[in-house]
Specification:
It is a single chain. By secondary structure, this protein is an all-alpha fold. It is built from 6 helices and no strands. The protein has helices at 3-7, 17-21, 27-36, 46-51, 53-62, 77-88. Helix 5 packs antiparallel against helix 6 (77-88).
Length: 93
C-alpha cells in the first residue's frame, strides 16, 4: 500500500478499533474470513485485523471483499476511507 496515498486522505477525526473499525465487519464477514484463512484472520480480533490491515484494505478498496455472492454489501467509499484512516493513524485501539 502506498503510504503517500494514505497521507493524502481526509482524516479529520481519530479513528479507533473500538469506536469505528470493529463495527465495519459483520458476523458473516468474520465467519467467512476465518474459514477462508483457516483461522489465520479473525476480523473480530484487534491484533489479527491490525496484522492483516494492508491486505484487508486492498480487498475492500478494490471491491473484492466482501466476495460476490456472500450476501454482504460492498463497502461504501466512506467505510473504505475510515479503514484507510485507521491504518494511516497506526491502527489505534
Amino acid at each position: 500500500m502506498d503510504r503517500r496515498a494514505l497521507a493524502q486522505l481526509n482524516c479529520p477525526n481519530a479513528v479507533t478499533w473500538t469506536n469505528d473499525i470493529k463495527k465495519l465487519f459483520t458476523s458473516v464477514d468474520v465467519a467467512h474470513m476465518k474459514g477462508v484463512t483457516q483461522g489465520a484472520l479473525d476480523l473480530s480480533d484487534y491484533n489479527s485485523t491490525k496484522i492483516w490491515a494492508t491486505k484487508i484494505y486492498q480487498e475492500v478498496s478494490s471491491g473484492a471483499m466482501p466476495p460476490a455472492g456472500s450476501g454482504e454489501n460492498q463497502w461504501t467509499a466512506a467505510m473504505v476511507n475510515t479503514f484507510s484512516c485507521w491504518i494511516q493513524q497506526n491502527c489505534p485501539m
